Amino acid sequence: MSKPLRILYAAGPGNVIGTYNHWVKGEDDPTRVSVTYSGQFYDACKKLNAEAYIIASRQDEVIIKDGQFTLEHRLMRWQKAGKILYHLGHLWYGLRLIATTLRFRADVAIVADGTTYWFLLSLLSWWGVTIIPSIHCVLWHKYSTPSKKEQLLLNLNRRLFRQDCAAILVVSDIITQQISQLTENQHQPITRFSPIYRLDQFTSIAKPDLTQCPFRVLFVGRVEHNKGVFDLLEVAQQLVAEGRKDIVFDVCGDGSALESLRLAVKEAGMECFFICHGYCQQAEMREMYGQSHVVIVPTRTNFVEGFNKVVVEGVLASRPVITSAVCPALSDVKEAVFEVPPNSIEGYTQAIRQLRDDQELYKAKCEGQQAVQAKFYDRSRGWGAKLTSYLSE
After folding, report:
1. How far is CA 15 from the centre of its chain?
2. How far are the Cα atoms of 79, 135, 179, 291 from residue 13, in angstroms, in the given order?
3. How far is 393 from 391, CA to CA, in rounded Å?
4. 250 vs 133: CA distance, rounded Å
5. How far apart are CA 121 and CA 229, in angstroms?
6. Partners of residue 6 on adjacent β-strands
7. Would you tell me the crossing angle of helices 359-373 and 345-357 to the nearest 10 degrees?
8. What gap in Å lies between CA 313 and CA 315, rounded to an integer?
9. Cα Rg of the chain (Å, integer)
């Protein structure tokens, strides 16, 4: 028998040990709506009979070993420090990652973006390690030109995509386009994957009821300025000023701006119309989707959005989604989405008005969902299936 494949997976930030504890019981991670990438990785390793070392960047440093899996939560230092220390932290984390890869004698290294600088991983090719970048965010802001420092990093990263990696996994077409632009179409094979969900996560969610008042607008995600939550508060204020007190906004998620948002809501006297629920578990999110009428994703152009799963989750929950082309997921579900110009407070306000007042438009968006939902339940389109197919060749 040939020796088992040895794979190192640098998963970026996330609780890979928590997900693993659920996976060994045959359960999905209840803190996530979609099927987690780490869960898909464990499935792939089981199918391939591979030995794996999984690393995630987290504050709670811990290492466990269980059968074919070694799992580590590793601290990434200086993430909130000044620019020089921030870059040094990324470089140090990358060098430690390379050392672990070699010590583990990995045949393959799968590395998610945000782990370290891509150019550093080229060192692994010198030792014959197969490198597979897994890219979930755009390489640069879609609506702006990279700065000189960003361009320098992009130029350094070009070699990895051109020759030092074996394949590239990407979550959206815009990432493929940027890699092609960066490398002048001289890149290694690119495989597109889709976020994957389980049907039973959404079958229990009731269909929207337009006779129910108030009309509820749901935001799900990180509460940050560049995620558009403060724009959303302006939208809510504008609607209330017009006398539209039949519309309520629900904000689900945590983030560095959550307390600032709550304070702004209080100062504006908007507590009855703009409710910050904080972080919600999977079961709570099903309830929030069930009582909503539309889902809104107002990400701003200064955020490096790679896909945005909430756009898809709104569609799977049979809710019209209001968003802009800042979110690459838009192209996958266009029939079910009300598209507005990026960063446009008036655009988002008008979209809510129209979907609230025009039942035919609302129903048309709901009907458009049926044509696009099935592909997000198809496991063959998922990250794990694409990875397994490549490693089985």
Report:
1. 15
2. 12, 13, 23, 31
3. 6
4. 36
5. 36
6. 51
7. 100
8. 5
9. 22
Helix, strand or coil, per DSSP, at residue 217: strand
Which stretches of the chain are DSSP H helices? 16-23, 37-48, 83-103, 122-125, 148-159, 173-183, 200-203, 229-241, 258-267, 282-291, 309-316, 345-357, 359-373, 383-392
Structure-block tokens of residue 17 = 């040990």
Q: Please give the structure tokens belonging to residue 245.
A: 């007190």
- Amino acid at position 178, single letter: Q
Residue count of the chain, please give it: 393
Residues 6 or more apart from 201 whose CB is under 8 A from it? Answer: 33, 282, 286, 316
User: Could you list the pLDDT tens digit for every one of the 393 residues in the chain?
Assistant: 478 999 999 999 999 999 999 999 999 998 888 999 999 999 999 999 999 999 999 999 999 999 999 999 999 988 878 888 988 999 999 999 999 999 999 999 999 999 999 999 999 999 999 999 999 999 998 888 999 999 999 999 999 999 999 999 999 999 999 999 999 999 999 999 999 999 998 998 989 999 999 999 999 999 999 999 999 999 999 999 999 999 999 999 999 999 999 999 999 999 999 999 999 988 899 999 999 999 999 999 999 888 999 999 999 999 999 999 999 999 999 988 999 999 999 999 999 999 999 999 999 999 888 889 999 999 999 999 999 999 998
Please enumerate in sequence order all residues whose Cβ is within 8 A of that of 70, keeping only pairs 6 or more positions apart, or say none: 52, 53, 54, 63, 64, 104
Tokens in use for 85? 């220390």
This prediction has a pTM of 0.93
Calpha distance 35→141 (Å, rounded): 27
Starting at the earlier edge strand, list the strands of the sheet with 294-297: 274-278, 247-252, 215-220, 294-297, 321-323, 337-339
DSSP secondary structure, 35-61, as one string: PPHHHHHHHHHHHHT-EEEEEEE-SS-
